[in-house]
Amino acid sequence: MGQAKNTEFEFRGVNHLALVCRDMAKTVEFYRDILGMPLTKTINLPGNMGQHYFFDCGNGDSLAFFWFPDSPEAVPGISSPAQLPRRGNFVSAQGSMNHIAFDVAPEKFDEYVEKLKAKGIDISPVSNHDDSPTQISETVTDRVFVRSVYFFDPDGVCVELAAWTRALNDSDVDNTARPMTAADLRPAA
């Protein structure tokens, strides 16, 4: 969203994010038929190893899924969040993918929230993220920088619709904050 420039590599965005699903048919139904993402490529992997499908998620970027006949079961609360934000524990393990956020236009956000509800999708409360102590505003104010709503796909992948409400700038980065390290981790209970 901001104008920061990468001086090392000229990345053009995300080519694709590859996830693993339990049921490719349900995945196609959810992403293509419910969320409207065009299915752009289907691959049957050699040696009956599985499938790899790609969906257009906008701006030439793709969301991809593997289906493997011998993949292990999901472990909510470890490999993915157990609950949606503002509903419970949203923590997932190191190295896991916590959620994927799709960018939507701010003027379409409320309409899309209503569409999700109409399609029977169980969504989180809308989060108007700001820099207040709670980091959530019940209403959209000039301090809100992004609006979010979260939901799970059929495999428990946490999906977010996110709408930037203002351009980010240098004041959005706290250069005095110390990034946490492995030494800051809490001991396992």
TrEMBL record:
<dbReference type="Pfam" id="PF00903">
    <property type="entry name" value="Glyoxalase"/>
</dbReference>
<dbReference type="InterPro" id="IPR004360">
    <property type="entry name" value="Glyas_Fos-R_dOase_dom"/>
</dbReference>
<protein>
    <submittedName>
        <fullName>Glyoxalase</fullName>
    </submittedName>
</protein>
<feature type="domain" description="VOC">
    <location>
        <begin position="13"/>
        <end position="164"/>
    </location>
</feature>
<dbReference type="InterPro" id="IPR050383">
    <property type="entry name" value="GlyoxalaseI/FosfomycinResist"/>
</dbReference>
<dbReference type="InterPro" id="IPR037523">
    <property type="entry name" value="VOC_core"/>
</dbReference>
<dbReference type="InterPro" id="IPR029068">
    <property type="entry name" value="Glyas_Bleomycin-R_OHBP_Dase"/>
</dbReference>
